[in-house]
Amino acid sequence: MNENCRNHRPLVAISACLRGENVRFDGGHKNSLYIREQLGRFMDFKAICPEVGIGLGVPRQALRLVATDSGVAAVGSRDSKIDVTNRLRQFAEERIPDLTQVDGYIFMQKSPSCGAFRVKVYNEEGNQIVASRPGIYAGYIQAALPTLPIEEAGRLSDPVLLENFVTRVFCHNDWRTNVQNSSSISALMSFHARHKSLLKACSPSSLPLLGNIVANTRQNTLHEDMQRYKELFMSALAKKAERKNHAHVLQDLVRTSVSSMSDAQLREWESLLYQYRQGTVPLIVPLTLLNHYLLAQNRGYATGQTYLKPHPHELGLRNQI
Ligand code: SF4
Predict the structure, then answer these.
(1) Which of 100, 131, 157 is the last residue of a domain?
(2) Which runs of consecutive H residues, i.e. helices, occur in 145-262?
(3) Which range marks the domain in which residue 317 is found?
(4) Region label for 311, one of left (φ > 0), alpha (ψ between -120 and 50) or beta (otherwise)
(5) What residues pair up with 67 in beta bridges, in sequence order?
């Protein structure tokens, strides 16, 4: 990311058990060393345990999701008369004001409270899985804050999903600190300009739509235009960038920003780009060469693009995709 725009560490909410807190039903935790020791070098965390937050003790009876006539409920796995659905929703509602100040949320997978995607739902007899859906708390948060980057800890072991999530977190932080807080047309224009290449990689069709919002905004429509822009921008970034899109963007940056290449440099570049397209070298390889050319020629447009450095290179996230 453009260093001038990275002036705050992202703040990310996280299921408290993933931070090593002994809050699980069995008194244990699910500490993630990667989140703590790697991601934690570059972002801060806000740990939340909704089940402890609503007053359930540690240890406690495990919960499960059950399909009832009035909808899906979070109930005790041994005693289904213990129904904490409404208390979990209430707790989530009370967290929303605080969560407008975070840049992402890492949830614990499979939990009937915190699971973000495919938590098992049982029938009322509790012996058959009839569906899957987000946990009660996580589902409420996602519906209330649809632009917040979210991911489950288990899915972060996939390098593509990890890189995508961290990119969204840093972009959300850029938006929150540089656009939302200033609420000016120039801040919106500048944000759009520096994210063009990233948008081309993730969702090329979104770029003209976002460009239209920026071009047509006026002071009296800025607030709602910013809201529309943020929704479209964050959903565009949630799409995984395909290898062929990355290759297009890299070629585009060379075409627009590298004024001269010797025949040998051109052959080297085309060979690396071909290898990247074939999947034999990771993204960091052509990117490093591109940065080398750009550094030598000091070209403005490309060097201002978030795409070249959407997150700290120390994380090495582009070494594996
Ligand atoms: S998954 Fe959520 S509710 Fe369960 S222990 Fe972890 S933080 Fe608490």
Answers:
(1) 157
(2) 159-174, 185-194, 196-202, 206-216, 222-237, 243-257
(3) 158-321
(4) beta
(5) 72
50 φ/ψ angles, rounded to the nearest 5 degrees: -65, -35
Residue 187 shares a structural domain with residue 308:
yes
* Residue 44, H or E segment: strand 44-48
- Domain end residue (candidates: 157, 181, 197): 157
- And the tokens for 22? 């002994």
**Residue, of 299 and 304, whose pLDDT is higher:** 304
CA of 18 to the centre of ligand 1 (A): 8
Whether residues 144 and 175 share a domain: the answer is no
Atom of ligand 1 nearest to the CA of 115: 1
Q: How far apart are CA 31 and CA 18, in angstroms?
A: 4
Q: What's the structural domain count of the chain?
A: 2
pLDDT at 298: 63
pLDDT score at 4: 42
Strands across the sheet containing 44-48: 44-48, 11-15, 104-107, 150-152
Q: What digits encode the pLDDT tens for the residues 167-224?
A: 999 999 999 999 998 889 999 999 999 999 999 999 999 999 999 999 999 999 999 9
Which protein residue's CA is at the shortest distance from atom 6 of ligand 1?
Answer: 17
Same domain, 26 and 101: yes
Are 153 and 188 found together in one domain?
A: no
Span from the CA of 211 to the centroid of ligand 1 (angstroms): 41
HSE, CB side, 13 Å, CA atoms: give it for residue 3. Answer: 2
**Residues 149 and 169 occupy one common structural domain:** no
Instruction: Identify whether residues 164 and 305 lie together within a single domain.
Output: yes
List, chain by chain if needed, residues with CB within 6 Å of any ligand 1 atom.
Answer: 15-17, 23-24, 49-51, 108, 111, 113-114
Q: Which residues contact 280 (CB under 8 A, 6 or more apart)?
A: none
